[in-house]
Amino acid sequence: MSDDDNILRYDRMVEQALRGVVKQAIGEVMKDGLPGDHHFYITFITDFPGVEIPDYLRDRYPGEMTIVLQYQFYDLSIDNDRMKVTLSFNNVPERLAIPLSAITIFADPSVNFALQFQPLGDDSGPDIDPDDEEEEGKQGGEKKGGKTGEVVSLDKFRKK
Q1: What homologous superfamily does CATH list for 3-157?
Q2: In this structure, how many other beta carbons lie within 10 angstroms of the beta carbon of residue 52?
Q3: Does the pLDDT value for residue 153 go beyond 70?
C-alpha cells in the first residue's frame, strides 16, 4: 500500500470539482450561446491521451495549445469526459475533441476569471510543474511571433 492510499486526496477532489465549473460553463454556452462579452481561452495538453486534433496542429503546437471560443466556433458539445468543438484554422474547419482532464487553463477574460489545473489521470500524462515559468502557451491557435506565453495564476484575475 502506498502513502497515497492512506490519505484523502483533497487536491484531486478540488481539481475534479473545479473542472465541473468548466463543464457547466461550456454546457450553458452550448444551450444559450456566449452572453455579452464572455469568451473562453482553453489551454490543453496536445499529447494527452484522448486528445483528437489534426496532426499538423499537434506538430505545430507540441505539448500545449490554447483555443479561443469567441466569434467563430461550431458544433460545441460536452459530456462527462470531453468537449468537442469545430474551429477554423487558416479557413479550414477542424473538429477538436479535448478530454476535460487534458485542460490546464480555463479563462474568461471578460470577467477576470481563470482556473489553472494539473492534468488528471493515472499519471500517464506528461508532468507539468506549476512553478515552471518557462512553460509555453499558444494563443488563439496561432503562435505569437515565437514568444512563449505566460502561465496564468488565479491571483492575476482576482479583484483587489
Answers
A1: SspB-like (2.30.30.220)
A2: 13
A3: no
